[in-house]
Amino acid sequence: MIAGGERVVRERFGIDPDTCTGDHSCIRLSGCPSLTIKPNPDPLRRDPIATVIDSCVGCGLCGEVAHAAVLCPSFYRAEIINNPTAWDRFKLRLRTGVIGWLQNRIEARLEGIAA
Fold first, then answer.
1. Are residues 23 and 65 located together in one domain of the fold?
2. Is the backbone of residue 24 left (phi > 0), alpha (psi -120 to 50) or beta?
3. Is the pLDDT of residue 24 over 60?
4. Which domain holds residue 58?
């Protein structure tokens, strides 16, 4: 379908390492083989964090279980769009512009506080 030029949307799931608490309830509840643990990048925290490896097929079971049980705010779902439409490109430009504008405001505030 991708080679034919059709729009294809794939879902991928991930875990934000900054917000993962390391309790691994997501691994215990879902039983997904793509959920594993890795060393914590934060030197002040000792618990290993959960991660989603590349064998994830995007079935959504891990994210569904975590959100239904309100266990893990570190899960995120990303949509990978191949052959995007004009509407998809417009939404991307709009989102990028708004996020950039908000980030610049935060940086300006932080510079004002530091001065």
1. yes
2. left
3. yes
4. 1-83
Rounded to two decimals, the pTM is 0.62
Average per-residue pLDDT for the chain = 83
Same domain for 66 and 103, yes or no, is: no
98 Cβ contact partners less than 8 Å away, ≥ 6 residues apart: none
Do residues 84 and 6 lie in contact, with contact meaning Cβ atoms separated by under 8 Å?
no
Whether residue 103 sits in one domain with residue 74: no
User: How far, in Å, CA of 73 to CA of 16, rounded?
Assistant: 9
HSE-up of residue 11 (Cα within 13 Å, Cβ side): 11
Q: What is the pLDDT of residues 57-75, one digit of tens each?
A: 777 676 666 555 455 778 7
